[in-house]
Design brief:
The complex is a heterodimer of chains A (188) and B (200).
Chain A lengths: L2 H13 L4 H13 L1 H19 L8 H18 L4 H4 L5 H20 L14 H24 L2 H28 L9
Chain B lengths: L2 H11 L3 H8 L3 H23 L2 H18 L10 H25 L3 H15 L8 H14 L2 H12 L4 H8 L3 H21 L5
Helix pairs in contact in B: 2-3, 3-4, 3-5, 3-7, 4-5, 5-9, 8-10, 9-10
Classes of the chains: A mainly alpha (188), B mainly alpha (200).
């Protein structure tokens, strides 16, 4: 028996699966070859030590992590065709933003004088939409200006400013009157 | 033997075949079952090979991601799922080993201090006989010093208790090469353990 063959058959020898004749042959080789005898002894020691080692247990959360990651991968690869394009839009944050945008547009439309309940196809014409927005914006502006001017404290401040302006206009006239030299009498 | 007959026989011999078939039909429960069934084994192989719990968790997740993406390419006729999974794990571990080899070569002495202290403590014991968790830790240190070829062979045979034929399929080498690597790996491991004082 060659040493290379011994190396291969040693596994079966240690497993106890070799036939009696092969076992004897292997033992005979080991008794005459120092390196193979050492290999046999070392292999037996290692096998015995390996059997004593504690089994490795995976962390409990590992299965959850794996399932989570494969779920993500399923999300990335699962959707087919054009539907996959819309998948990001259906995420809660985007859905919320879209809802807010629709709400804002509808509020703007209401402000512009439109009535969502009586919406007609002609109302969606860009010219009509623009006219409505322009009209609504002017009305809103005028309403805002009136409201502002009718505020009591605004009225008071403005009247105070007006009186200050009046005083400021009168003062130069008075100063001019004081500073004017009296006309000298001209002797005949 | 006709291909269909061979396929049936292989499928019958593979305990994972029904789960895999259900996974391929898109059943999420089947996938969950498959993950639960094999997580411990994949993690164990990764941990024995790398010696790091954090790296092993990442690698295990990566293995299952690969399985998830390439399950369609698995053919029951070409072997059982367990062997295919082992082969996939082994390939990922080898890739990882190649990537991290340079980083590990320059490991600082601080990283090795706990191991050195442990070795001294074990060597001080009269019988030098250790078991359980302590044996596991010493084994981790010794396995890290084996070459990847011998390491994977010893892990798959002695720690994962795979058949020689299955290991040969997973590693894509002849049975004789597997047995030869296992014998040399065991002998090298025994020498390393002796140096550490773990065995007499």
């Amino acid at each position: 028996m060659l040493c290379a063959e011994f190396e291969i058959r040693l596994c079966d020898y240690l497993d106890g699966t070799l036939e009696a004749a092969s076992r004897r042959e292997l033992e005979q080789h080991a008794s005459g070859c120092r390196s193979c005898a050492a290999l046999l002894a070392d292999s037996a020691v290692a096998t015995e030590f390996l059997s004593r080692a504690e089994a490795v247990e995976a962390p409990r959360e590992l299965v959850t992590h794996i399932l989570h990651r494969t779920q993500q991968a399923r999300g990335a690869f699962g959707a087919a065709g054009w539907r996959s394009w819309f998948r990001p839009l259906l995420q809660p944050r985007f859905a919320m933003s879209m809802a807010m945008t629709v709400l804002s547009i509808s509020m703007l439309y209401q402000v512009a004088g439109g009535n969502l309940r009586q919406l007609q196809a002609a109302d969606l014409n860009p010219v009509n939409v623009w006219r409505g927005i322009d009209n609504g914006a002017h009305r809103l502006w005028n309403r805002g200006v009136k409201y502002y001017q009718n505020l009591r404290w605004v009225y008071e401040v403005m009247s105070m400013l007006r009186s200050l302006d009046d005083e400021a206009e009168q003062e130069p006239a008075r100063d001019a009157g004081q500073a004017r030299p009296e006309p000298k009498k001209i002797e005949p | 033997m006709p291909e269909s007959a061979s396929l049936t026989q292989t499928a019958l011999g593979d305990p994972d075949a029904p789960l895999v078939a259900r996974c391929l039909r898109g059943e999420e429960a089947a996938w969950e079952g498959l993950v639960k069934l094999h997580t411990r084994r994949v993690y164990s192989i990764c941990y024995r090979f790398t010696g790091s719990a954090v790296e092993s968790q990442d690698l295990t997740q990566e293995v299952f991601l690969r399985v998830f993406r390439s399950l369609k390419s698995f053919r029951a006729s070409s072997g059982c799922f367990r062997v295919w999974l082992t082969s996939l794990t082994r390939n990922l571990l080898i890739d990882h080993y190649r990537k991290t080899r340079k980083e590990k070569a320059v490991d600082s002495i601080e990283d090795r201090l706990p191991v050195l202290e442990e070795t001294e403590a074990v060597a001080g014991r009269p019988e030098g006989r250790v078991a359980g968790r302590e044996a596991g830790e010493l084994l981790r240190t010794a396995l890290a010093k084996l070459s990847p070829e011998l390491r994977e062979a010893v892990i798959l045979r002695d720690l994962e208790e795979m058949e020689y034929r299955e290991i040969a399929e997973a590693l894509k080498v002849p049975d004789g090469t597997v047995k030869s690597r296992i014998s040399r790996g065991r002998a090298e491991l025994a020498r390393l353990l002796r140096k550490m004082g773990a065995v007499v």
